[in-house]
Specification:
heterotetramer; A alpha+beta; B alpha/beta; C alpha+beta; B: alpha/beta; two-stranded antiparallel sheet; 5 helices; C: 7-stranded mixed beta sheet; 27 helices; disordered C terminus; binds adenosine-5'-diphosphate; binds magnesium ion
Chain lengths: 83, 232, 765, 83
């Protein structure tokens, strides 16, 4: 756990919830297959957000809920590390 | 002389280019992305639109269309190629032009007329330097970027053909550049000068009835004139 | 036949799905047995308000729907009118209010997708979109978020499919705070002989599903959401949000139009609310045939989907075609070229029954026509709302103090120009591609958009053009729904006439609260009566439309909002007219007369924070006469500019003409003298209908006077174009540049206050 | 290392190269600060791509070089795991 004063890096992974259609992912999947990568089974495209901040996990969670992810259709995962 | 206008899945300005060509008396036809043959065409336009929905990255998927290998060969032989908007993005993804087009700085799609200053010339487009033209832009990813070295080279070789500017041709202020492009770059050409890409839409500035502006015609007639000169 | 629903559980599931007990009994009666799960889902959705119009059907019969130009009236996916020279135009408006309130970006985007499919289903190429939007006031962060996201979503979808968004309207009112309105209208163009109807025929013909795969997204989405009141529970309904895929839509447009123009299809229908169920049931019932569908043949993007899920999924970007077995190969070839799956999922039968199988097992078997036609019809009680008396009794002139003198009146004009309901909408339409297809002759920002008629790229342009406008002032409708609805039609017609178009037909989107509340239902019926009377008087039929009920939050209904989308015809595109003043020296003429009508005005709202009084009256004959004079003058080529007076009244109209033309004007308005003198606020801000500001060159003044005089339309020369300020003698002194600054920057300023920025754009990937 | 026949999940993180302006990231950063999160130092927004495929790391690397990332502006990192 990073203290209140040190800069930490939070990595946020935002993806569509299960069951929500992901057109960019579907298009990338088709494109990869067309390029000959037959082993590809599925592609999903989400967001990867790096936040360098002097704050804590609870606050980053709040940021996600308020701004960075759209709770209606997306879910997210936060990983905390060193900046 | 016949202009080939490439149709990718999701292109949506191909018909506008053909219409503009028609107004200018230029013969034009459609080239299907799945084809591999450009014979019969003397120049190629990659039109605007949203090839493959602009998903993943604008132009990223379209550049693998079968026709693209042929377009690369056509360009290598010196054939005139113009990429408009999404066409410009595809040309950069295909490495026929340097740099990349990022999200507009304001994060908004922008459809409005802009002023452009001619700052360079390409092989077939040779408008007097300093000329100011007005044409609409219509994009979400028109924010041109390249590294410093490339920029210096483009500048030194006079390959920045168009820059966003003020109506009097002076440097674009605050809101005048629609997308935050590096050095206000709106259009560039390759080293040889035959491949030209631009974000604004010259085909929308040809027919006076539906253009808020005119001045786009020169971009098409220039190709014809060049081909007439070299006997294409 | 699968028997998967114990008789004692069936009524419970029915109730959960929104079927009333009597409706459930009716289903049992039709089937003669306990329904299966799949059947219950199918009936409940088809008989939902959204799909069956059970509360509105009777009232909608008031609309005139016939006319010489009408090729297809209400009842199909879109209405169609002939516009001359063998060209036809299909158009329709539809709401996506409830999905957008939950997820504004995707809700608005998929709203555009849905209405576009309605258009090309008819065989028409979509050539224009208009969007009609309502939000709460922009001082609320949530409202800014909804507004920004909805605009971004509409843009993202329309821009991607290459159909220009050429116009629309937006209002910000407290009444829409808990329930925004997102109405989208689409217009398509075709040759008359290409008109296609979604009528299944020919037992043995194949049902082919074209486009996207089917997932659980949007199960019961639009239909469930749009058929229930909107409250906290809305949050729980979230999984039904759908994500739009405009790229696939673009491919569908191209593939379907190619299939239709090559005459490869027997019928084509889009999958909208209630998905496959609705599309198939409607096609079958129109054709009087039966259908059989095997859900295992439907390409699915999720594991272990139940038959009912497949049947009611509202996954976007899908079309259902009826194809003869001989044509199947060619149809699949066309689709493959466009990169679209086209899968046989069943066939047409002669039984008249809608049969759903899961492999060999029958999971639903019902008379097809009962799904589409046997929904109950309700005639709910209507009662005039009690609040109307008090609201209407309010007399703005007597009960309020009004600004006077040049300084205060000019300041008031500036306040109005900055009002979110009046200021420039440039911030919106610059996010929309409004030019693609190269047909947009009059761009957004004028009274109506003008599109020349011609299919893109073929240089097949004609002399003709169409003009389109969408209008509805919900505040007027709140104060008096009958008059308010008439004004909606009147304003749309006036806007189109100002652009040079003769009104031809309308579509509508009727947005109201719960029809089960007598006071709401009364406003609904009154609105329809108002629109119908105006349409009948002017020979302008209603050719398509949509009803959106249950627009309420926490029991509070929105303003009655019967949005009108009107299309008019220009015999010659050369006659297109815009609002901006053109040349110094031109003479400014006011057609029509100003009355003391401040009730429901933007002036009352902005200056006095009041919404009350009687809305302006409508004189149906005077409106028609005004349009005729205008169209005659435009046809003679003497009109330099034309702009109608709407919100903000004459002063705002004049200011808009100056701003658009970048030139001032000197105006003198006769206030009368002594006791009969009109208060300046009436002259400047009254929103009396039936008025248009016209400019003509000096030589043409007399001719315009003649035209007006003969038609009995009040005519007054009120000034001259010129200078760099709008001067209204003794009342207003306003520089054009200052007015432009305020007018053009107001909306952007309201959307992007520095303290917050919660934009959907961040969420686009 | 996953064998040629098993399905693996590859997680690809695509970010802008250093020095490339990231408009969504910059806007999110400003927005978070405006929302009162003063501790935020920097926000970068990239793509998070999940590929379920019967293939190997070398092939996924090739997919990135060819399609999933644009080497002119982007860099990427791949993490291999279980599908
Ligand atoms: N949501 C919108 N989308 C696109 N254009 C819009 C929108 N709202 C307004 N406009 C355009 O802005 C102009 C002014 O709109 P409005 O004030 O509603 O005009 P009017 O009072 O003449 O009906 C029109 O050209 C209209 O089409
Ligand atoms: Mg108007």
């Amino acid at each position: 756990m990073t203290g209140k004063d040190a800069m930490a890096r939070f990595e946020v992974y935002v993806t569509y919830k299960r069951g929500i259609f992901d057109p960019p992912g579907a298009t990338a999947e088709r494109a990869l297959k067309n390029l000959g990568y037959q082993g590809v089974n599925s592609v999903r495209i989400g967001k990867y957000i790096q936040i360098d901040a002097d704050t804590d996990l609870a606050t980053v969670t709040e940021m996600c809920d308020r701004l960075l992810a759209n709770p209606v259709i997306e879910e997210y995962r936060i990983v905390e590390g060193e900046a | 002389m016949r202009l080939g206008v490439v149709v990718f899945p999701g292109s949506n300005c191909e018909q506008d280019v053909v219409h503009a060509a028609g107004v200018l008396g230029i013969d034009a036809g459609y080239v299907w992305h799945g084809d591999t043959d450009l014979s019969g065409y003397d120049a190629v336009v990659l039109p605007g639109g949203f090839s493959y929905g602009d998903y993943l990255r604008c132009g990223a998927v379209a550049r693998f269309s079968p026709i693209m290998s042929e377009i690369v060969r056509f360009a290598e032989r010196g054939g005139p190629v113009m990429g408009i908007c999404n066409g410009f993005q595809i040309l950069t993804e295909a490495h026929l032009l340097e740099g990349a087009l990022l999200r507009n700085e304001g994060l908004k799609f922008v459809c409005r007329p802009v002023h452009l200053r001619v700052d360079g010339s390409c092989d077939w487009l040779d408008l007097p330097l300093g000329t100011v033209v007005r044409m609409p832009v219509n994009h979400n990813e028109g924010n041109y970027h390249c590294d410093a070295e490339t920029l210096a080279r483009l500048d030194a070789e006079g390959r920045v053909v168009l820059r966003y500017c003020e109506p009097d041709g002076s440097r674009a202020q605050g809101g005048s550049a629609p997308n935050g492009a590096l050095d206000d770059i709106a259009g560039i050409c390759n080293a040889r000068g035959n491949v030209f890409g631009l974000m604004p839409h010259p085909e929308r500035a040809v027919d006076p009835l539906v253009g808020t502006t005119t001045g786009g015609g020169a971009f098409f007639t220039a190709i014809v004139e060049r081909l007439a000169r070299v006997g294409g | 036949m699968r028997d998967d629903l114990p008789a004692e559980l069936a009524p419970r599931l029915a109730a959960e799905l929104g079927l009333k007990p009597a409706e459930y009994e009716h289903v049992v009666e039709i089937l003669g047995r306990t329904p299966t799960v799949t059947e219950l889902y199918m009936y409940s959705l088809m008989w939902s308000e959204h799909c069956s119009y059970k509360h509105s059907r009777t009232a909608l019969r008031m609309f005139p729907t016939e006319g010489a130009a009408v090729l297809q009236g209400p009842g199909e996916n879109a209405g169609v009118i002939g516009v001359g020279d063998g060209w036809a135009v299909a158009f329709k408006m539809e709401s996506h209010n409830h999905p957008s309130a939950i997820e504004p970006y995707q809700g608005a985007a998929t709203g555009v997708g849905g209405i576009i499919r309605d258009i090309f289903t008819m065989g028409a190429r979509p050539v224009a979109i208009l969007d009609s939007l309502r939000f709460g006031t922009l001082d609320q962060p949530r409202q800014r978020y909804l507004f920004e996201s909805a605009v971004a979503g509409i843009g993202a979808y329309g821009n991607c499919i290459g159909v220009p968004t050429v116009g629309g309207e937006v209002y910000f009112e407290e009444a829409y705070e808990g329930n925004c309105l997102i109405n989208a209208m689409a217009i398509g163009l075709m040759r008359e002989e290409d008109l296609m109807r979604a009528v299944a025929a020919g037992p043995g013909n194949l049902l082919v599903l074209i486009g996207s795969t089917t997932g659980r997204d949007g199960i019961g989405g639009a239909s469930v959401l749009a058929s229930q009141e909107f409250d906290e529970k809305a949050e729980e309904k979230r999984p039904s949000v759908q994500v739009g895929d405009p790229f696939t839509e673009k491919l569908l447009i191209e593939a379907c139009l190619e299939l239709l123009s090559r005459r490869l299809l027997v019928a084509l229908g889009d999958l909208g609310a209630a998905g496959l169920t609705s599309s198939a049931a409607e096609m079958a019932s129109r054709g009087g045939v039966g259908l059989e569908i095997d859900v295992t043949r439907v390409p699915q993007r999720e594991e272990a989907m139940k038959p009912f899920e497949v049947m009611v999924s509202e996954s976007q970007e899908r079309m259902l075609a009826v194809v003869t077995p001989e044509m199947l190969g060619e149809v699949q070839g066309v689709c493959e070229r466009w990169g679209l799956p086209a899968t046989v999922i069943g066939q047409v039968t002669e039984t008249g029954r809608f049969v759903v199988r899961e492999g060999d097992e029958v999971v639903a078997d019902m008379p097809a026509a009962t799904l589409a036609h046997d929904a109950p019809v309700y005639d709910p009680p209507a009662e005039r709302p009690a609040y109307l008396d008090e609201l209407q009794r309010f007399d703005p002139l007597a009960e309020l103090d009004h600004p006077e003198g040049v300084e205060m009146l000019t300041a008031t004009l500036f306040d109005l120009l900055a009002s979110p309901n009046i200021c420039s909408r440039r911030w919106i339409w610059e996010q929309y591609d409004h030019q693609v297809m190269l047909n947009t002759v009059v761009l957004p920002g004028s009274d109506a958009a003008v599109l020349r008629i011609g299919l893109p790229g073929r240089c097949e342009v004609t002399e003709r053009a169409i003009a389109a406008s969408s209008d509805c002032n919900g505040r007027y409708c709140y104060l008096d729904p009958y008059t308010g609805a008439q004004i909606a039609v009147a304003e749309a017609a006036r806007n189109v006439a100002c652009a040079g178009g003769r009104p031809a037909a309308i579509t509508d989107c009727l947005n109201f609260g719960s029809p089960e509340k007598p006071e709401v239902f009364w406003t609904f019926v009154e609105s329809i009566r108002g629109m119908a009377d105006a349409c009948r008087a002017w020979g302008v039929p209603v050719i398509s439309g949509n009803v959106s009920f249950y627009n309420e939050s926490f029991g509070q209904p929105i303003y009655p909002t019967p949005t009108v989308g009107l299309v008019g015809i220009l015999e010659s595109v050369a006659h297109h007219t815009t609002l901006g003043f053109k040349e110094a020296g031109d003479v400014v003429v006011l057609l029509g007369e100003t009355e003391a009508e401040l009730g429901g005005s933007e002036y009352l709202k902005v200056v006095h924070e009041t919404v009350a009084g009687l809305p302006p009256r409508v004189d149906l004959d005077a409106e028609a006469a005004l349009r005729e004079v205008l169209l005659a003058a435009i046809g003679e080529g003497i009109v330099r500019s034309a702009h109608d007076c709407s919100e903000g009244g004459l002063s705002v109209a004049l200011a808009e003409c100056c701003i658009a033309g970048s030139i001032g004007a000197d105006v003198h308005l006769d206030l009368g003298a002594g006791d009969g003198a009109a208060p300046p606020v009436v002259t400047l801000f009254s929103e009396t209908q039936g008025r248009v500001v016209v400019t003509v060159a000096e030589y043409a003044v007399e001719r315009l006077f003649e035209l007006a005089f003969v038609a009995g339309v009040p005519f007054a020369v009120i000034g001259t174009v010129g200078g760099d300020a709008l001067r209204i003698g003794g009342l207003v002194e306003a520089g054009v540049a200052e007015m432009r600054d305020v007018f053009e920057s107001a909306l952007a300023g309201l959307v992007h206050p520095e303290e917050t920025f919660a934009s959907e754009e961040l969420r686009q990937r």
